[in-house]
Design goal:
With 359 residues, this protein is of the alpha+beta class. Helices cover 53% and strands 13% of the residues. It has 13 helices and nine strands. Strands 3, 4, 5, 6 and 7 form a five-stranded antiparallel sheet that branches.
Length: 359
């Protein structure tokens, strides 16, 4: 009796197992694995998410194989980084995510909401940021010496540029050391336009009065809703061209034209401007360009090396075959299974060049 009852209890599970076996259980299309990289899967969902992210930034739908290659590259980059102890934590990635939103002048929450409205999970962007962090640290750490740019090379490149374009502005080949003191006339957030305009007129009046930095310090330190900060010393190479142009047009001891910022109406007191041979904007530009060229060349060759050593297997044959990527010596595809005409069942139409009958 007990055995009979137990058998009846097990019948629903038995029938369910039979039903699944008959209909053939299949995972959802998005969950299907498209590629295996060193034992780690890349799913159709991963490809779909990354395609949306690329489209959001470029406004152009990327080729599927380009997206797959990008995801494969990230897998091998992260694996290579772990070999050398480079593995950013979740908090490190979150910090990079927040920094990115700050550069976009929005909060991290706003960035997340913007992605979600486009059907993109924040983790899709964070995965790309993590791979970039790993690879950048890996290249700069392993090849630090070979990436250095010699000053002789920079000087030679500058001379070559001057020969090509002898009419270039001298400001690009001259460098100054600026001593500055930022000044802020505070404007509370949400202030009416009239209040902001009044503050701007006040700044212009004060700008006309100040003739030296000593006067600026005495005036703004005693003024309410105003502040003068500690002196800052920077060279021409450290300053954006727009600010450099403003400073070059401002007499020493005077204030730059007022500018509206998040804090209020800001000006800069120019307390000193001395020629220097430390660096020039042109030198810095050329040095950074030469470094970038070295970095990109090393990055490409290193990536080819680690990808060539990776085990890459394409699972999503129906999508991959149409794309015809060129696999490395370790990349392989699962063979297409074709219908056997000698066996009963519906025949499939297959081109002989893409499908070989299995005997």
């Amino acid at each position: 009796m007990t055995m009979t009852t137990r058998c009846f209890r097990q019948l629903p599970a038995f029938f369910m197992a039979c039903a699944l076996a008959v209909i053939g259980w299949q995972p959802s299309a998005h969950a299907q694995i498209a590629v295996m990289v060193n034992g780690e899967p890349i799913t159709n969902y991963d490809i779909d998410q990354r395609s949306k992210l690329v489209f959001l930034s470029t406004k152009k739908m990327p080729d599927r194989q380009q997206v797959i290659d990008e995801l494969i590259d990230e897998k091998v980059k992260i694996r290579e980084g772990k070999k050398f102890g480079i593995d950013p934590s979740a908090s490190d990635v979150d910090q990079s995510y927040s920094s990115m939103s700050s550069r976009m002048r929005i909060t991290g929450e706003q960035l997340t909401k913007s992605l979600e409205t486009q059907g993109i999970r924040p983790d899709t962007l964070k995965a790309r940021l993590k791979a970039d962090m790993v690879w950048s640290n890996l290249i700069r750490g392993r090849y630090k010496e070979s990436l250095q740019v010699g000053e002789k090379d920079v000087a030679a490149a500058v001379q070559e540029k001057e020969k090509e374009k002898p009419g270039d502005e001298k400001s690009d080949t001259q460098s100054f050391e600026y001593k500055m003191q930022p000044i802020v006339l505070i404007v509370p957030r949400g202030s009416a336009a009239d209040a902001v305009e009044t503050r701007k007129k006040e700044a212009e009046a004060l700008r006309a009065r100040v003739q030296t930095c000593a006067e600026a310090n005495a005036l703004f330190k005693s003024m309410q809703n105003a502040a003068i900060k500690e002196p800052v010393v920077k060279t021409s190479a450290d300053i954006p061209p727009s600010l450099r142009e403003v400073l070059n047009g401002t007499p020493v001891g005077h204030l730059t034209p007022p500018e509206l910022t998040k804090q209020g109406v800001e000006m800069v007191a120019l307390c000193g401007k001395d020629p220097t041979t430390v660096d020039t904007p042109k030198k810095k530009e050329i040095r950074e360009k030469m470094y970038t060229e070295k970095y990109e060349a090393k990055s490409k060759s290193y990536l080819r090396e680690v990808r060539g050593a990776a085990m890459i297997e394409y699972r999503d044959v129906s999508s991959s075959d149409d794309l015809r990527p060129t696999p490395s010596k370790h990349e392989k595809r699962r063979p297409r299974r074709c219908a056997d005409p000698s066996r009963p069942g519906p025949k499939r139409r297959r081109s002989s060049s893409r499908c070989k009958t299995r005997l």
